[in-house]
Design a protein that fits this description.
By secondary structure, the protein is α/β, with parallel strands linked by helices. The chain is 43% helix and 23% strand. Helix 4 (130-144) crosses helix 6.
Protein backbone atom coordinates (compact mmCIF):
# COMPACT_ATOMS: atom_id res chain seq x y z
CA UNK A 1 0.00 0.00 0.00
CA UNK A 2 1.16 3.53 -0.67
CA UNK A 3 -0.01 7.14 -0.87
CA UNK A 4 -0.13 8.63 -4.37
CA UNK A 5 -1.28 12.18 -3.63
CA UNK A 6 -1.66 14.54 -0.69
CA UNK A 7 -3.52 17.85 -0.63
CA UNK A 8 -3.46 20.20 2.39
CA UNK A 9 -5.42 23.33 3.14
CA UNK A 10 -4.76 25.16 6.41
CA UNK A 11 -2.92 22.22 7.98
CA UNK A 12 -0.38 23.38 10.61
CA UNK A 13 1.89 25.90 8.82
CA UNK A 14 0.71 24.89 5.31
CA UNK A 15 -1.80 27.24 3.75
CA UNK A 16 -2.01 25.17 0.56
CA UNK A 17 0.07 22.25 -0.67
CA UNK A 18 -0.44 19.57 -3.32
CA UNK A 19 2.01 16.71 -3.75
CA UNK A 20 2.27 13.54 -5.84
CA UNK A 21 4.18 10.47 -4.65
CA UNK A 22 5.47 7.25 -6.16
CA UNK A 23 5.77 3.94 -4.25
CA UNK A 24 9.30 4.87 -3.26
CA UNK A 25 11.34 6.66 -0.61
CA UNK A 26 11.19 10.41 0.05
CA UNK A 27 13.46 12.70 2.01
CA UNK A 28 11.97 15.91 3.45
CA UNK A 29 14.78 18.39 4.10
CA UNK A 30 14.34 21.53 6.16
CA UNK A 31 15.45 23.44 9.22
CA UNK A 32 13.63 23.49 12.52
CA UNK A 33 9.99 24.68 12.44
CA UNK A 34 9.87 24.79 8.63
CA UNK A 35 7.20 22.10 8.24
CA UNK A 36 8.92 18.80 7.48
CA UNK A 37 7.49 17.08 10.60
CA UNK A 38 4.09 18.64 9.86
CA UNK A 39 4.17 16.93 6.47
CA UNK A 40 4.78 13.56 8.11
CA UNK A 41 1.96 14.35 10.50
CA UNK A 42 -0.37 15.05 7.57
CA UNK A 43 0.39 11.64 6.04
CA UNK A 44 -0.21 9.97 9.42
CA UNK A 45 -3.48 11.88 9.80
CA UNK A 46 -4.58 10.81 6.32
CA UNK A 47 -4.05 7.15 7.27
CA UNK A 48 -5.48 7.20 10.80
CA UNK A 49 -7.38 10.49 11.38
CA UNK A 50 -5.10 11.15 14.34
CA UNK A 51 -1.83 12.92 14.98
CA UNK A 52 1.17 10.77 15.90
CA UNK A 53 2.05 13.61 18.27
CA UNK A 54 -1.32 13.18 20.03
CA UNK A 55 -2.34 16.72 19.08
CA UNK A 56 -5.98 17.73 19.23
CA UNK A 57 -7.69 18.48 15.91
CA UNK A 58 -7.95 22.21 16.66
CA UNK A 59 -4.15 22.32 17.08
CA UNK A 60 -3.74 21.07 13.52
CA UNK A 61 -5.70 23.97 12.00
CA UNK A 62 -3.49 26.75 10.69
CA UNK A 63 -3.38 29.85 12.86
CA UNK A 64 -6.00 32.34 11.71
CA UNK A 65 -8.06 29.71 9.82
CA UNK A 66 -11.34 28.22 10.99
CA UNK A 67 -10.97 24.79 9.37
CA UNK A 68 -8.56 22.42 7.67
CA UNK A 69 -9.04 20.18 4.64
CA UNK A 70 -6.87 17.15 4.00
CA UNK A 71 -7.28 14.94 0.95
CA UNK A 72 -5.30 12.01 -0.32
CA UNK A 73 -5.46 9.04 -2.65
CA UNK A 74 -3.52 5.86 -2.92
CA UNK A 75 -3.51 2.10 -3.12
CA UNK A 76 -4.73 0.54 0.09
CA UNK A 77 -5.05 -2.98 1.40
CA UNK A 78 -6.08 -5.59 -1.13
CA UNK A 79 -4.69 -3.39 -3.93
CA UNK A 80 -7.83 -1.23 -3.75
CA UNK A 81 -7.84 2.43 -4.71
CA UNK A 82 -8.76 4.61 -1.74
CA UNK A 83 -9.63 8.33 -1.64
CA UNK A 84 -9.85 10.03 1.76
CA UNK A 85 -11.07 13.51 2.68
CA UNK A 86 -11.04 14.90 6.22
CA UNK A 87 -12.50 18.31 7.06
CA UNK A 88 -12.05 19.56 10.62
CA UNK A 89 -13.72 22.74 11.91
CA UNK A 90 -12.67 24.74 14.95
CA UNK A 91 -16.36 24.91 15.75
CA UNK A 92 -18.40 22.04 14.40
CA UNK A 93 -16.32 18.88 14.59
CA UNK A 94 -14.87 16.68 11.90
CA UNK A 95 -16.18 15.06 8.71
CA UNK A 96 -14.64 11.98 7.14
CA UNK A 97 -15.25 10.84 3.57
CA UNK A 98 -13.92 7.59 2.13
CA UNK A 99 -14.32 7.13 -1.63
CA UNK A 100 -16.92 9.91 -1.64
CA UNK A 101 -19.12 8.48 1.14
CA UNK A 102 -19.45 10.08 4.59
CA UNK A 103 -18.35 7.84 7.46
CA UNK A 104 -19.23 8.60 11.06
CA UNK A 105 -16.79 6.12 12.62
CA UNK A 106 -13.07 6.84 12.45
CA UNK A 107 -12.47 3.10 12.76
CA UNK A 108 -13.78 2.79 9.17
CA UNK A 109 -10.56 4.47 8.03
CA UNK A 110 -8.16 2.24 9.98
CA UNK A 111 -6.62 -0.56 7.98
CA UNK A 112 -7.15 1.06 4.59
CA UNK A 113 -3.61 2.44 4.88
CA UNK A 114 -1.37 1.09 7.64
CA UNK A 115 1.42 3.31 8.93
CA UNK A 116 4.28 3.19 11.44
CA UNK A 117 5.94 6.35 12.75
CA UNK A 118 9.53 6.50 14.03
CA UNK A 119 10.55 9.52 16.15
CA UNK A 120 13.04 10.40 18.92
CA UNK A 121 10.10 10.39 21.34
CA UNK A 122 9.73 6.62 20.79
CA UNK A 123 12.07 6.13 23.74
CA UNK A 124 9.09 7.10 25.93
CA UNK A 125 7.45 3.81 24.96
CA UNK A 126 10.34 2.08 26.75
CA UNK A 127 11.25 4.54 29.50
CA UNK A 128 7.95 6.36 30.04
CA UNK A 129 4.81 5.53 32.04
CA UNK A 130 2.65 2.46 31.29
CA UNK A 131 0.14 4.48 29.23
CA UNK A 132 2.83 4.94 26.55
CA UNK A 133 3.21 1.17 26.16
CA UNK A 134 -0.56 0.63 26.22
CA UNK A 135 -0.93 3.27 23.50
CA UNK A 136 1.71 1.53 21.34
CA UNK A 137 0.02 -1.88 21.63
CA UNK A 138 -3.43 -0.37 21.06
CA UNK A 139 -2.27 1.38 17.90
CA UNK A 140 -0.82 -1.85 16.47
CA UNK A 141 -4.08 -3.68 17.14
CA UNK A 142 -6.36 -0.93 15.83
CA UNK A 143 -4.73 -1.00 12.40
CA UNK A 144 -5.30 -4.73 11.91
CA UNK A 145 -8.58 -4.96 13.84
CA UNK A 146 -10.59 -1.71 13.60
CA UNK A 147 -13.35 -3.22 15.78
CA UNK A 148 -10.86 -3.04 18.65
CA UNK A 149 -11.37 0.75 18.58
CA UNK A 150 -15.01 0.22 19.47
CA UNK A 151 -14.00 -2.00 22.39
CA UNK A 152 -11.67 0.72 23.71
CA UNK A 153 -14.38 3.37 23.42
CA UNK A 154 -16.95 1.15 25.09
CA UNK A 155 -14.54 0.26 27.90
CA UNK A 156 -13.82 3.94 28.60
CA UNK A 157 -17.55 4.67 28.78
CA UNK A 158 -18.13 1.82 31.25
CA UNK A 159 -15.07 2.81 33.27
CA UNK A 160 -16.27 6.40 33.64
CA UNK A 161 -19.73 5.28 34.74
CA UNK A 162 -18.30 2.80 37.23
CA UNK A 163 -15.98 5.45 38.68
CA UNK A 164 -18.95 7.78 39.11
CA UNK A 165 -20.81 5.02 40.95
CA UNK A 166 -17.81 4.43 43.23
CA UNK A 167 -17.46 8.15 43.99
CA UNK A 168 -21.15 8.43 44.83
CA UNK A 169 -20.65 5.76 47.54
CA UNK A 170 -17.66 7.48 49.13
CA UNK A 171 -18.29 9.00 52.56
CA UNK A 172 -21.81 7.69 53.12
CA UNK A 173 -23.53 4.59 54.42
CA UNK A 174 -23.52 1.54 52.15
CA UNK A 175 -26.88 0.57 50.67
CA UNK A 176 -28.10 -2.63 49.04
CA UNK A 177 -28.80 -0.66 45.87
CA UNK A 178 -25.13 0.36 45.72
CA UNK A 179 -24.08 -3.28 45.55
CA UNK A 180 -26.55 -3.99 42.75
CA UNK A 181 -25.36 -0.99 40.73
CA UNK A 182 -21.65 -1.81 41.10
CA UNK A 183 -22.18 -5.47 40.24
CA UNK A 184 -23.99 -4.40 37.06
CA UNK A 185 -21.05 -2.21 36.06
CA UNK A 186 -18.64 -4.99 37.07
CA UNK A 187 -20.22 -7.39 34.60
CA UNK A 188 -19.89 -4.93 31.74
CA UNK A 189 -16.35 -3.94 32.70
CA UNK A 190 -15.25 -7.57 32.88
CA UNK A 191 -16.84 -8.54 29.56
CA UNK A 192 -15.32 -5.71 27.52
CA UNK A 193 -12.08 -5.49 29.50
CA UNK A 194 -11.36 -9.22 29.10
CA UNK A 195 -11.81 -8.83 25.35
CA UNK A 196 -9.12 -6.13 25.35
CA UNK A 197 -6.78 -8.14 27.58
CA UNK A 198 -7.03 -11.22 25.35
CA UNK A 199 -6.31 -9.25 22.20
CA UNK A 200 -3.32 -7.47 23.75
CA UNK A 201 -1.89 -10.77 24.94
CA UNK A 202 -2.27 -12.32 21.48
CA UNK A 203 -0.56 -9.42 19.73
CA UNK A 204 2.30 -9.19 22.23
CA UNK A 205 3.02 -12.89 21.77
CA UNK A 206 3.45 -12.15 18.04
CA UNK A 207 5.52 -9.01 18.61
CA UNK A 208 7.92 -10.60 21.11
CA UNK A 209 9.99 -12.72 18.66
CA UNK A 210 9.99 -9.90 16.10
CA UNK A 211 11.32 -7.38 18.61
CA UNK A 212 13.99 -9.88 19.66
CA UNK A 213 15.02 -10.44 16.02
CA UNK A 214 15.39 -6.75 15.14
CA UNK A 215 16.98 -5.87 18.46
CA UNK A 216 19.71 -8.45 17.84
CA UNK A 217 20.31 -7.07 14.35
CA UNK A 218 20.72 -3.43 15.36
CA UNK A 219 22.60 -4.20 18.59
CA UNK A 220 25.04 -6.59 16.87
CA UNK A 221 23.50 -9.57 18.68
CA UNK A 222 25.02 -8.88 22.08
CA UNK A 223 21.77 -8.60 24.04
CA UNK A 224 18.45 -10.42 24.16
CA UNK A 225 15.23 -8.48 24.64
CA UNK A 226 11.84 -9.84 25.69
CA UNK A 227 8.30 -8.48 26.12
CA UNK A 228 5.88 -9.61 28.81
CA UNK A 229 2.29 -8.50 29.19
CA UNK A 230 1.49 -7.50 32.77
CA UNK A 231 -2.23 -7.11 33.48
CA UNK A 232 -3.32 -5.15 36.56
CA UNK A 233 -4.34 -8.43 38.21
CA UNK A 234 -2.76 -11.88 38.36
CA UNK A 235 -3.56 -13.79 35.19
CA UNK A 236 -3.33 -17.59 35.39
CA UNK A 237 -2.23 -19.98 32.70
CA UNK A 238 -5.71 -21.26 31.84
CA UNK A 239 -6.87 -18.09 30.09
CA UNK A 240 -9.91 -17.57 32.31
CA UNK A 241 -9.60 -13.79 32.12
CA UNK A 242 -13.20 -12.99 33.02
CA UNK A 243 -13.28 -15.05 36.22
CA UNK A 244 -9.89 -13.72 37.32
CA UNK A 245 -10.90 -10.13 36.51
CA UNK A 246 -14.11 -10.55 38.53
CA UNK A 247 -12.17 -11.97 41.50
CA UNK A 248 -9.73 -9.04 41.36
CA UNK A 249 -12.61 -6.53 41.47
CA UNK A 250 -14.04 -8.26 44.55
CA UNK A 251 -10.67 -8.18 46.30
CA UNK A 252 -10.18 -4.48 45.55
CA UNK A 253 -13.77 -3.39 46.33
CA UNK A 254 -12.98 -1.86 49.72
CA UNK A 255 -9.96 0.03 48.41
CA UNK A 256 -11.87 1.24 45.34
CA UNK A 257 -14.66 2.61 47.53
CA UNK A 258 -12.07 4.43 49.60
CA UNK A 259 -10.42 6.11 46.59
CA UNK A 260 -13.52 6.38 44.39
CA UNK A 261 -11.89 4.83 41.30
CA UNK A 262 -11.43 1.53 39.49
CA UNK A 263 -8.06 0.06 40.41
CA UNK A 264 -7.89 -3.02 38.16
CA UNK A 265 -8.51 -3.48 34.46
CA UNK A 266 -6.77 -2.97 31.10
CA UNK A 267 -6.58 0.80 31.75
CA UNK A 268 -3.85 0.00 34.32
CA UNK A 269 -1.98 -2.76 32.45
CA UNK A 270 1.67 -2.58 31.43
CA UNK A 271 4.20 -4.25 29.16
CA UNK A 272 7.45 -5.28 30.83
CA UNK A 273 10.50 -5.02 28.57
CA UNK A 274 13.68 -6.76 29.67
CA UNK A 275 17.19 -7.03 28.25
CA UNK A 276 19.18 -10.04 29.39
CA UNK A 277 16.64 -10.47 32.18
CA UNK A 278 16.92 -6.90 33.54
CA UNK A 279 13.95 -4.50 33.49
CA UNK A 280 14.81 -2.09 30.69
CA UNK A 281 12.86 0.87 32.07
CA UNK A 282 14.64 0.68 35.43
CA UNK A 283 18.10 -0.63 34.60
CA UNK A 284 18.60 0.09 30.90
CA UNK A 285 20.95 2.81 29.68
CA UNK A 286 19.64 5.55 27.41
CA UNK A 287 21.33 3.84 24.46
CA UNK A 288 19.73 0.49 25.30
CA UNK A 289 16.32 2.11 25.65
CA UNK A 290 16.65 3.90 22.31
CA UNK A 291 17.75 0.72 20.54
CA UNK A 292 14.80 -1.15 22.05
CA UNK A 293 12.41 1.57 20.90
CA UNK A 294 13.67 1.29 17.32
CA UNK A 295 13.35 -2.51 17.46
CA UNK A 296 9.76 -2.11 18.69
CA UNK A 297 8.80 0.05 15.73
CA UNK A 298 10.49 -2.30 13.24
CA UNK A 299 8.62 -5.19 14.85
CA UNK A 300 5.35 -3.27 14.53
CA UNK A 301 5.99 -2.68 10.82
CA UNK A 302 6.64 -6.37 10.17
CA UNK A 303 3.68 -7.40 12.34
CA UNK A 304 1.40 -5.22 10.20
CA UNK A 305 2.88 -6.66 7.02
CA UNK A 306 2.50 -10.26 8.21
CA UNK A 307 -1.05 -9.70 9.45
CA UNK A 308 -2.40 -7.62 6.57
CA UNK A 309 -0.31 -9.03 3.74
CA UNK A 310 0.69 -5.48 2.77
CA UNK A 311 3.69 -3.36 3.66
CA UNK A 312 2.86 -0.37 5.86
CA UNK A 313 3.93 3.18 5.05
CA UNK A 314 6.90 4.23 7.20
CA UNK A 315 7.41 7.74 8.59
CA UNK A 316 10.81 8.57 10.09
CA UNK A 317 11.10 11.91 11.85
CA UNK A 318 14.67 13.04 12.46
CA UNK A 319 15.77 9.80 14.10
CA UNK A 320 19.18 9.45 12.47
CA UNK A 321 20.71 12.34 14.40
CA UNK A 322 20.35 10.11 17.47
CA UNK A 323 22.26 7.17 15.91
CA UNK A 324 25.91 6.58 15.11
CA UNK A 325 26.94 5.83 11.52
CA UNK A 326 27.03 2.06 11.98
CA UNK A 327 23.50 1.86 13.41
CA UNK A 328 22.24 4.29 10.79
CA UNK A 329 23.50 1.98 8.04
CA UNK A 330 22.07 -1.10 9.78
CA UNK A 331 18.69 0.59 10.08
CA UNK A 332 18.70 1.68 6.43
CA UNK A 333 19.42 -1.91 5.45
CA UNK A 334 16.35 -3.06 7.39
CA UNK A 335 14.19 -0.27 5.94
CA UNK A 336 15.21 -0.89 2.34
CA UNK A 337 12.64 -3.68 1.87
CA UNK A 338 9.69 -1.34 2.39
CA UNK A 339 8.08 0.17 -0.69
CA UNK A 340 7.22 3.62 0.64
CA UNK A 341 8.94 5.55 3.38
CA UNK A 342 9.12 9.24 4.22
CA UNK A 343 12.13 10.59 6.09
CA UNK A 344 12.35 14.06 7.62
CA UNK A 345 15.74 15.46 8.60
CA UNK A 346 17.44 18.80 9.02
CA UNK A 347 20.85 17.55 7.87
CA UNK A 348 21.38 15.10 5.05
CA UNK A 349 24.76 14.23 6.58
CA UNK A 350 22.88 12.44 9.40
CA UNK A 351 22.03 9.69 6.89
CA UNK A 352 25.68 8.51 6.90
CA UNK A 353 25.81 8.34 3.12
CA UNK A 354 22.68 6.19 2.86
CA UNK A 355 19.52 7.01 0.98
CA UNK A 356 21.02 8.00 -2.36
CA UNK A 357 17.89 6.75 -4.12
CA UNK A 358 15.47 8.85 -2.05
CA UNK A 359 13.48 11.61 -3.77
CA UNK A 360 14.50 14.89 -2.11
CA UNK A 361 11.98 17.61 -1.22
CA UNK A 362 13.21 20.82 0.44
CA UNK A 363 10.80 22.72 2.67
CA UNK A 364 11.02 26.32 3.89
CA UNK A 365 8.27 27.95 5.97
CA UNK A 366 5.47 25.63 4.87
CA UNK A 367 6.36 25.68 1.18
CA UNK A 368 8.20 23.37 -1.22
CA UNK A 369 11.23 25.20 -2.56
CA UNK A 370 12.73 22.32 -4.57
CA UNK A 371 11.85 18.74 -5.42
Amino acid sequence: MFVESLSLRNFRNYQALDLKFAPSGYLFLGGNAQGKTNLLEAIHYLCTARSQRNAMDEDLIRQGADHLILRGEGIGGGNRRVAVEIVSQREGGRRLKINGSIHRKISDLLGLFSVVNFAPEDVDVVAGPPRQRRRFVNFCICQVNPAYVDSLIEYQRILQQRNMALKSCTGRRWRAADSDELEAWDRQLVTVGSRIIRKRGQVLRKLDPLVCLFHQRISAGGERISLRYKPAFELGENGEEEAQFQDALRREREKELKFGMTLVGPHRDDVIMSVNGLHLKTFGSQGQQRTAATALKLAAAHFLEETMGEQPILLLDDIFSELDRQRTRLLFELLSKFDQLFIATAKESDLAGCGENLHRISIVDGAIVSA
